[in-house]
TrEMBL record, chains A, B:
GO cellular component, one term: cytosol
Stored Gene3D superfamilies: Jelly Rolls
This protein's encoding gene: ppnP
EC nos: 2.4.2.1, 2.4.2.2
Top EC class for this record: transferase
Protein function: Catalyzes the phosphorolysis of diverse nucleosides, yielding D-ribose 1-phosphate and the respective free bases. Can use uridine, adenosine, guanosine, cytidine, thymidine, inosine and xanthosine as substrates. Also catalyzes the reverse reactions.
Cross-referenced PANTHER family: PYRIMIDINE/PURINE NUCLEOSIDE PHOSPHORYLASE, PYRIMIDINE_PURINE NUCLEOSIDE PHOSPHORYLASE
InterPro entries with a match to the protein in the record: Ppnp, RmlC-like_jellyroll, RmlC_Cupin_sf
Entry protein name: Pyrimidine/purine nucleoside phosphorylase
Keyword Transcription regulation: no
Catalytic activity: guanosine + phosphate = alpha-D-ribose 1-phosphate + guanine; a purine D-ribonucleoside + phosphate = a purine nucleobase + alpha-D-ribose 1-phosphate; adenosine + phosphate = alpha-D-ribose 1-phosphate + adenine; thymidine + phosphate = 2-deoxy-alpha-D-ribose 1-phosphate + thymine
Protein family per UniProt: Belongs to the nucleoside phosphorylase PpnP family.
Length: 105, 105
C-alpha cells in the first residue's frame, strides 16, 4: 500500500537540496509531532549518510540501494521500505525517479 | 519577513517534478484547508504556465521573472512575492536557487 498523503502539523517552506538538485526534499512535522521529510531522487547514483537511523519508504517510482560497500543491490518500489542504521552510509541508484518519505529514529 | 514554516493539515508525498527536475515541489493543504505547494527552482531559465491565478512567494534565494514576453525582468528575493494571472505564462530565471510558496486563486 502506498502512502499518498500524510497528516501534518507544519511544513518547512525552504527545500533541502542535495547533490546539485539530484535529491530535493521538504521537511515537515506530522500531526503526532514527529519530524519527517518527503523527497525525490532523480536519475543518479549517490551516496547518502545518516545521523539518526532512517526508514526510507518509497511512495512512487523505484530505486536500488546498497547498504554496505560491495554488498547486494536491492530493489525498492512503491509501497516498500528499507532501513538504514544511524551514522551510516548507503548507496542509491535511480533510473527514473524515486519518491520517498524519510522517517527518522 | 520570510515565511519559514506554514501550518498544514496534510501533505502529498509524491513530488511534482518539472523540467527534468529543474523545479521540484510538494503539494499540501493548509490548516485552513487551502491548497498550496512549496518548491524550489534550480539554476535555469524556464517558462511556466498557470491555470488558476498564482502568487509566488520567495522564502529563500532569488529569481528574476518576466510576466510578458519582451517585458521587464523583475527581481524577487526572500520575503517578496509576485502575482501571475490565470491561464497565463511567465518566464523565470534563477542563478542559484529560488525557494517558494505557491499560493493559488
Amino acid at each position: 500500500m502506498t502512502t499518498e498523503t500524510l497528516n501534518a502539523r507544519s511544513i518547512t517552506t525552504k527545500a533541502n537540496v542535495y547533490f546539485d538538485g539530484k535529491c530535493v526534499s521538504h521537511s515537515f512535522v506530522t500531526a503526532e509531532g514527529e519530524n519527517k521529510s518527503v523527497g525525490v531522487v532523480l536519475p543518479a547514483e549517490l551516496t547518502f549518510g545518516t545521523a539518526a537511523p532512517e526508514i526510507m519508504e518509497c511512495v512512487a517510482g523505484s530505486c536500488e540501494y546498497q547498504l554496505e560497500e560491495g554488498g547486494a543491490w536491492l530493489p525498492c518500489t512503491a509501497g516498500q521500505s528499507f532501513k538504514i542504521a544511524g551514522n551510516a552510509k548507503f548507496n542509491i541508484r535511480v533510473k527514473d525517479a524515486f519518491h520517498y518519505i524519510c522517517h527518522y529514529g
